[in-house]
Amino acid sequence: MEKDLAQSLVCTLYPFILAVSIDITLPLFLPLFLSFLTLLHTNFPFSFEFSRTVFTPISPLRCEGLREKIIVLIGDSGVGKSNILSRFTRNEFCLESKSTIGVEFATRTLQIEGKTVKAQIWDTAGQERYRAITSAYYRGAVGALLVYDITKRQTFDNVQRWLRELRDHADSNIVIMMAGNKSDLNHLRAVSDQDGQTFAEKEGLSFLETSALEARNVENAFHTILTEIYHIISKKALAAQEAAATTILPGQGTTINVSDSSGNMKRGCCST
């Protein structure tokens, strides 16, 4: 009943959303509506997919198991996060990709060590005006791909700020990988591979260079993150099972044998 009500509210607001999406007031309206989405996502077991002007409710059945396997894409605007997302989830690349407004979602199911793993990827806007909105999405994430553009030094210099913000808002056990994107533009390189490796080692991050255009290392990046997430979740589940197995339930006790090694009981001081 409550889930149906929440979905009805979003569907009712859809025409208004579409109308204002091309209006000059969009930057003012969108933060309010995204806050509304965040509230619904927190209180009801369903989430939303949207691509700039179109918001589509996801069925609750599609969301089962996704909350523990959320990966966020973060980094400066223009580093190629949206194309990394589309390459991984749809095997597509758009040369005329526009800046993300707020947050975009996509999902994919894949096999990790013989197990089916469902992942929900959140592509966050890199623009400063959306920072307060996108940071709210870090809290539910168990993995993050921190992206910079190897042809723009400033995007690499800003990685430290993104990393600090992520660690301030996300779970302490979040799996983080740093990716130097647009490796196909090696002739325009402004950040060396060694610079990326050194920074990643210093901060304890995984690292690789990717190319969404050539589909280079995109699959590998997400597979590495999801594999590590799977290992962490598996270890937690195993530890919980072991803890449950060793817990003494109320009413149960341990029998202690007070006999000596020869099987004779100790005599009292007045024994004859």
Automatic annotation (TrEMBL):
Gene Ontology, cellular component aspect: plasma membrane
Chloroplast is among the record's keywords: no
Membrane topology (UniProt): Lipid-anchor
MF term (GO), any: GTPase activity
Keyword Nucleotide-binding appears in the UniProt entry: yes
Signal peptide: none
Stretches that traverse the bilayer: 12-40
InterPro entries per UniProt: P-loop_NTPase, Rab_GTPases_membrane_traffic, Small_GTP-bd, Small_GTPase
SUPFAM superfamilies: P-loop containing nucleoside triphosphate hydrolases
Compartments it resides in: Cell membrane
CDD domains hit by this protein: Rab11_like
Broad class of the protein's primary localization: membrane
Gene3D superfamilies, sorted: P-loop containing nucleotide triphosphate hydrolases (3.40.50.300)
One Pfam family from the record: Ras
NCBIfam families in the cross-refs: small_GTP (TIGR00231)
Family statement: Belongs to the small GTPase superfamily. Rab family.
The protein's name: Uncharacterized protein
